[in-house]
Amino acid sequence: MPLLRPITRSTALLLGVAMLVSCTSAPPVDTPAQASPQRASPPAEPASPLLAKVYRIDPAASTLHILVYRGGAMARLGHNHVVSSPNLQGSVWQGASLENSGFDISVPVNDLVVDDNAARATEGEDFAQNVSEDAKLGTKANMLRDTLLDGARYPDIRITSIRVQGDATAPVVIAALRIKDQTREVTLPVALQTSGKRLQVQGKFEIRQTDFGITPLSIALGALQVVDTLTIKFALVAVAD
Fold this sequence. Notes:
Number of helices: 3
Oligomer: single chain
Number of domains: 1
Radius of gyration: 18 Å
CATH topology: Lipocalin
């Protein structure tokens, strides 16, 4: 049973715009984000160390979920969203030490999927299934418009490692995240597992839309709004060349 219970069709369309116009995700309570507001230089094309083992992302086996939460006094009239990427691209390299390891990953913006039922099911009771196709299409169109993600001018979101530190199986990565023309440093605690030619990386982190120059949509004097803080969950599978 969907969380959205509109009084009229026009209300439903308005809520669809309100709840996913930002294409990112946030928890029900606006907790402090892990992303630093510190500006990072746009990532240059990284070069993996010559002796590093290089793994290529398998998009069919990898998942990226961006959770978008409703907020405000009228939040009960909206519903939460899951934005997923079926086409992650990039590579991970594993050197002799963590300092010689890293990754460069891009997320094709125009390929993002809004409210896939399977993706919503994995995220629990906050994400009821069976969002209408009209709502999905309308939400994606708003998400890609030039005042938001601007998929025509900025077709990729990119995240590139700056340094890797800590334990080999549970490292902490400092990375440069670029959304549109804004780049910020983010901290990514990850779980890392290798088996033969296969590498698996899992993690979760938060960002604020406003740190990237995006103003979360707010209507009715803030009674219905998109929460600023966004949660991003990933489970990457990569295969060695």
